[in-house]
Amino acid sequence: MSAEAHDHDHGHDHEHEHHHKDTFITKYIFSIDHKMIAKQYLITGIIMGIIGIAMSLLFRMQLAWPEESFKIFNVLLGDKFAPDGVMANDIYLALVTIHGTIMVFFVLTAGLSGTFSNLLIPLQIGARDMASGFMNMISYWLFFLSAVIMLSSLFVEAGPASAGWTIYPPLSALPQAIPGSGTGMTLWLVSMAIFIASSLMGSLNYIVTVINLRTKGMSMTRLPLTIWTFFVTAIIGVISFPVLLSAALLLIFDRSFGTSFFLSDIYIAGEVLHYQGGSPVLFEHLFWFLGHPEVYIVILPAMGLVSEIMATNSRKPIFGYRAMIMSVLAIAFLSTIVWGHHMFISGMNPFLGSVFTFTTLLIAIPSAVKAFNWITTLWKGNLQFNPAMLFSIGMVSTFITGGLTGIILGDSTLDINVHDTYFVIAHFHLVMGISALYGMFAGIYHWFPKMYGKMLNKNLGYIHFWVTAVCAYGVFFPMHFIGLAGLPRRYYTNTNFPLFDDLQNVNVLITTFALVGGAFQLVFLYNFFSSIFYGKKAVQNPWRSTTLEWTTPVEHIHGNWPGEIPHVYRWPYDYSNPNHDVDFVPQNVPMKAGEEVLHH
How many domains does the chain have? Predict the structure, then answer.
């Protein structure tokens, strides 16, 4: 469909929309408006984030003060899992598993990408809505259903899945393996299968919308970097998520129908089981073929948001626009050929290990290009240090510090020594977890006026950023040292080993930072929900930004623009253009006679 055809078709829809009044259910619940669906993703993601962070605080308390009795353990976990307020080891593993699953998939994949892809793709490319509003709605409700099923596994008698968020067999393939391997594991698999269906529907919708529904003049080289990252992220998702779906289905077959895809000869309690011929390593390959692209599905949208916010708040064009696009494409391609670096100790051929080391170190190059370009964008800019900008700079900081340890872990010789220690936890929480979370916070602070028509409280934003920044490094930086000392991950207590006695103080320090940082997220929650109702009313373009979403009215309307969709005449980062008196020129402002196109 051409851009003109798109304008024409949706003009009629738009007129039609004004003739009927939305009911509460069609406006707030089963909405097909991309802006409402974005808010639904965001609120659901925030609720899941609260649950995920709360779980991490519980197991951090267990690691800092093992065998101690806490009333809160008994209240939240019950007598079965915390008798006399002492956490049982089974529930420790379950909390780690569900925390990882919730944060990676439900917060940083759906909460981040689902929110901002839905909000920004139609608004920034000049479209009335997504290619399929109905499919968009179904995508959200499948995500919601999968979240409900995942949370329902917490209330199963034997406990939720406990095989780690990577659910390796045989713990996940044998219902009798450990307490969480029964109904809890089944619910995990069903939830993830539905989540993957939701993700695929959303991704296909994003891809089709970007390809088909751009407004007149919006060529691919005039797209904001946000849209490039959402577009490429959706492509990675469509390629890699079906592989995890196949792994989940084969795992269900192993669990329920007696097949042996992932199980070879195995003994439980001295009894030989009837499985033979399968291989748990096959599952590792299938899982990590999604699992590593998943890291980029999480971080790329955050990179796009940060690029946009940095250009806006530096009041200068983004440095190396085309290099940024090429690096996103390079990351997308390379992300599909590096999964083996998670499996260096699985007994793989050493030559294959060296191939994966090479491709892993290669992916550092486009990542470094992005970091260099962000820093150069800041260089000599007229910097506006609002909360969105601070979180963007914080994201660059954690991405660099977390990325440097990735180079160590990408080298098979070094990785074998620190695999499955706290060093790995420190690495991926900084480079993926905290970086993506900072990108999400930056996006919320920046686009909140577009979503709710109100402004967030800036001073509370500053408090939120500085405490979060200090605590994030306070939690994850010391983990590098205890990891290098050999402390294994996923142990519910480290006090059984005299070797690690000296490290217990570090665990107390980490947990203290975690509790303070977790508590200060309440500042953000208060700011977010109170500003929706009582915040200062936003103006149309509060950040004096150039992209199309700021040309729409503050009040949300069907079809986004009241009249004709604006045409695009220039690239998205026309800041401090010497041909104009103002320091920003929106994309829909025609070129002056004789105006030079700024090089990008």
Answer: 1
